[in-house]
Amino acid sequence: MKRLYLTFALLSLAFAGMAQVKMLKPYYSVTTYNVPDSVAFVENAVAIECQSAVYKEFQPGMFKATVEITTMFKQGDKYPSFSKVAVDSPVISDTTKINGAFINQQRFPLPKGSYEMILSVKDLNVVDGRALNDTLVVEVNYPKNPSVSDILLYDSFTKASKPSACTKSGMDFLPRVYPFYGSNENKLNFYVELYNSDMLYDEGKYLVNYYIETCESSTRLQDYAFVKRFPVAPVNVHIGSIDISSLPSGNYYLVVEMRDRSNALICSKSIRFFRSNPGATYDMYDLSAVGIEATFVSQINNIDTLRKYICYLDPLCSESERDYSLNLVKTDDLKTMQQFFLNFWNSRSPMNPRSAWEDYLAAVRRVNMSFGTPSYPGYRTDRGYVFLKYGQPDKIVESPNEPGAYPYEIWHYYEVANQHNKRFVFMSKDNVTNDFHLIHSDVIGEINNPRWQLEIYSRINGNIIDGIDQTQYEGGWGTHARDLYDNPR
Q: I need a labelling partner for 3 at 20 to 30 A (CA). Which of 54, 292, 374, 486 fits?
């Protein structure tokens, strides 16, 4: 099961009279852990981007920001756990040099079950400021047989001089709340717990595999795969580190597996992360070893058709695959194109690559029909790209004729890319061409534009941005975009 990682994509502007204020930018991650023969618990880490908070002078020449974090766990009509805390930023003396983030960590013991976790963050230095809210589903379900905790990505740890609510294995960890690794970062550090391996054997050791795999095709990267042996025990702890200095840009999963002595998989957990490393490349394919004889690809022998089919794959490609395919379709090498195409689908659906391709081709034909414009086929439009990459949305809100607004659509996904309750906002500047552009999404890795509302309502008002911090349009009668975004229907 892929571990849930969520990021606040909550964009808010609060007004005191006509004054503008900053927009809070909080990010959070949620991990669960087990205590054998006791209650499990949930840890929540919330990071606040310092530049997004309002700093106030509390002593002459000394400034700090203060936010209120409210966490509630709901199960049916009951609230088994609740917390409201005020969190201060580090104190500064120069408000022109605000940077970094400040983090709050909390732990919540909870019985086994499924919970709605309701999170609210509010800037206490903003008069009448609006709280930023989000809700996610958290499963606390550790069986008595072998299992793996959620994976914590961290930046550093120190030996705990005094145990706190979030001390683990005698260490205090600084979590990496937003799992993005830039080109100057060379280590992926993680913490994970392994439970009840003593139910496998009376004594001896068992195997733990951990590795990095691509998000797009779930391909395990052999240069980033490791094995460790642990003695059987009620609880084992693994504090690991992987050198990612040569890992190319892309979206990946870190996977941790428990395996028995015969290398049979028992259970696993994973967490998604993002890597930016433009200078690193690797040879993804040994295509010369890919045999196309007696496969469905051998029947695609028209080079122009194959070029078109390879172009169709763009929404599903990793960055390395995309770079490779863009150069490949410029050649006349039919065989290598066939080998690339077959290898692409074998890596995604090894049991039935032909069926996977035919299902995808049907989706391409659907988006070409629905989203095509006079300039581009549907698969090359923003709506077509999102549909092919993430699938059909659970809800689509269409607003073609709202007063003062350009036509826009809001797509809502209950679950997408290992995230919950996510949205895409598309806008068109005319009603004729069907050409909608993606202007905002709260899905990690997609375009995130805090001023998307201002773009929608610039049709009549023109440039209505009043300062660099303005993000929300305070319009009059008939403006619904914010409400439809928060409550799609």
A: 486
Tell me how crowded residue 202 is: count the other CB atoms within 10 A of its CB.
Answer: 7
Lowest mean pLDDT among 16-30, 75-89, 169-183: 16-30
Q: Which amino acid is at 441?
A: S
**Tokens matching residue 72:** 């509630």
Contact 4, 464 (CB under 8 A): no
- pLDDT for residue 474: 55
326 backbone dihedrals φ, ψ, rounded to 5°? -60, -35
Measure CA of the first residue to CA of the last residue in the chain; give whole Å: 30
pLDDT value at position 463?
A: 57
Residues 164-187 as b/e (b if ≥16 CB within 10 A, e otherwise) read eebbbeeebbebbbbbebeeeeee
Helix (H) or strand (E) holding 410, with range, is strand 408-416
- Which residue type, as a one-letter code, is found at position 455? E
Instruction: Band the pLDDT of 473: cuts 50, 70, 90.
Output: low
Cβ-count burial 298-329 (b if 16+ within 10 Å, e if not): eebeeeeebbebbebbbbbbbbbbbebbeebb
Residues 6+ apart with CB under 8 A from 401: 407
At 46 the three-state DSSP class reads strand
Give the three-state DSSP class for 209. strand
Tens-place pLDDT, residues 230-259: 999 999 999 999 999 999 888 899 999 999
Token readout for 222 is 């052999």
Give the pLDDT band of residue 467 (cuts 50, 70, 90): very low
Residues linked to residue 419 through DSSP beta bridges, in sequence order: 416
Q: Is 401 helix (H, G, I), strand (E, B) or coil?
A: coil
**What gap in Å lies between CA 250 and CA 318, rounded to an integer?**
7
Nearest to 220 by CA among 151, 270, 292: 270
User: Residue 14: what are its φ and ψ, rounded to 5°?
Assistant: -110, 140
For the chain, give the percent of residues with pLDDT over 70: 90
Nearest 10 degrees: Cα torsion 51, 52, 54, 58: -50
Structural contact between residues 213 and 226, judged by C-beta atoms closer than 8 angstroms: no
Two tokens, residue 6: 């969520």
- Residue 396, pLDDT above cutoff 70: yes
CB 239, CB 154: distance < 8 Å: no
| Of the candidates 149, 38, 190, 41, the residue with the CA atom closest to the CA atom of residue 105 | 41
Q: Is the pLDDT of residue 464 over 60?
A: no
Q: H or E element: which one contains 482?
A: helix 481-486
Alpha-carbon distance 226 to 222, whole Å?
A: 9
